[in-house]
Structures are given as structure tokens and as C-alpha cells.
Amino acid sequence: MIPIHDTIKSRESPFITLTLILINAWAFLYELSLGRELEAFILRYGLVPARYTLSAGWDEDLLFRYLPFFTSMFLHGGWIHFLGNMWYLWIFGDNVEDRMGHLRYLIFYLLCGFIAGYTQYWTQPLSTVPLIGASGAIAGVLGAYLFLFPHSTVVTLVPVFLFLTAVEIPAVLFLVLWFFMQFLNGAIAITSVSQVTGGVAWWAHIGGFLAGFFLVPVFKKRQVPRYYEDEAWPSW
Fold first, then answer.
1. Is the pLDDT reported for residue 236 higher than 50?
2. pLDDT tens-digit readout, 39-70
3. pTM
4. pLDDT value at position 197?
5. Phi and psi dihedrals of 130, rounded to 5?
6. Tens of pLDDT along 67-91?
7. Which of 75, 82, 181, 69 is nearest to 115 (CA)?
8. How many domains does the chain have?
9. Could you give the CA distance from residue 125 to residue 122 in angstroms, rounded to a whole number?
10. In a domain, 95, yes or no
11. Which domain holds residue 60?
């Protein structure tokens, strides 16, 4: 399923969402310019679980030791990886930013990304493959969107026979199905050789999504605009 757009219009300019997309774009273009130096760069600024599990020989400076938990969420492994992540951030991030405010949203995004990386670390502690990508932080945005806009719909391209057809899907169904697929793949991956050799960071997605969902009450604006009153969970 490929989301095209949601049906909730943001009231304010998504300044932080746009800024995050631009930073990710700059970082990705910088990666493309590195040539043979790219591997060393990714190893340095990507999140390598074994760096913390088998700490001998790694840089002990606290700043550079934990910096990859944040720098890794601005790096990507290819055009599809980059464009897919930025598309999801653009579609769902503006509304979440609207409900949290710019500064709270930025802190929320970075915190979800950190929790996502930490979750992946605990599920693959011996992996020497760098974890990179914004998907853990964006999963947090998806979790927040589910909490804040359960009655929204997402216009989505779905395969019907041999053609892609645009269909309005309830946001709850779209996001719950997305989370279920991450959990199913994560459950399979945690018992496979990919624990050591790498692959998709399914548990980063799971950790980020759950963090985003449960952190919403801490970060959302206390006063909900009338425009949104019908979009929130009635009892929350």
C-alpha cells in the first residue's frame, strides 16, 4: 500500500517537518558525494549495536559514543529508502506537528528516534551492521497520528488485479496494519541470522511506533482547537 495523502489539513505551516526533510536530504546528498569514504562514514555515524555490547576498542568519549543514536536517523542507504521515509514524514508529520507545536514536535521526533534505535540495539546486540534511517523516528510520528487522528482516512494506492487504485482507507486500519506487519517481520527476524548480519530494523519501527503512541499525552497541546475536537479519541 502506498499512501498518497490524508484527509486532515494542518492549520499551521509544518516548519519542523519541512526542516527535518531538508536536513535528511542534505545528509543523503552528502553521503552520495563521499565515494569510497562512505563506508567509513556510515560505520562512524550509523548505530552499530556491537559498539556498545562489545565496547573494547571503541571510542570511549561519551559524546561520540552516543551521538550515533541521533546521527543515524538522518542517514539513508539508497534513494528508495530515503524517498520512502520522507514521503511518510511529509504525509503524517504536518498534522502531528500541528497538534504538538514546533518545539515539542522536534523533541518528540528525536526522542522517538532514540527509543527506536535503543529498541533495535536490545534485539540485535551483537550486530556489527550500522543501523541508519529515519524510519524509527517516523514510526513514532505514525504512532502519534494514530492516537490523535483515529477517525481520519488515508487515500492509498492499493493493487486491484493488475492496476493500482486510489482508495480511502481509515487511518486506524492503515496504521494498525502497518504496525502488525512490522511486528510479524520483527518476530521472524529476531530468531534468524539477520540478528548478526543485518537487514530491515523491524524492532526500531516497533519501538518508535509504541513510543510515539504513548508519549502523545506528554507532548500534545493542552488546548485542542475546535477544528480537531472530532478527531481525538473520545475518552482521552
1. no
2. 999 999 999 988 888 765 555 566 677 899 99
3. 0.88
4. 44
5. -60, 135
6. 999 999 999 999 999 999 999 999 9
7. 69
8. 1
9. 5
10. yes
11. 2-228
**CATH number for the domain harbouring residue 109:** 1.20.1540.10
Find, among 185, 37, 199, the residue nearest to 132 by Cα.
199
Residue 234 in any domain: the answer is no
Percentage of the residues of the chain whose pLDDT score is greater than 90 = 62
Instruction: Please check the confidence at residue 176 and state whether its pLDDT lies above 90.
Output: yes
In a domain, 236, yes or no: no
Residue 233 in domain: no
Q: DSSP readout, the chain?
A: -EEEEES---SS--HHHHHHHHHHHHHHHHHHH-GGGHHHHHHHHSB-THHHHS-TTS---HHHHHTHHHHGGG--SSHHHHHHHHHHHHHHHHHHHHHH-HHHHHHHHHHHHHHHHHHHHHHSTT--SPB--SHHHHHHHHHHHHHH-TT-EEEEEEEETTEEEEEEEEHHHHHHHHHHHHHHHHHHHTTSTHHHH----HHHHHHHHHHHHHHHHHHS-SSPPGGGTTTS-TT-
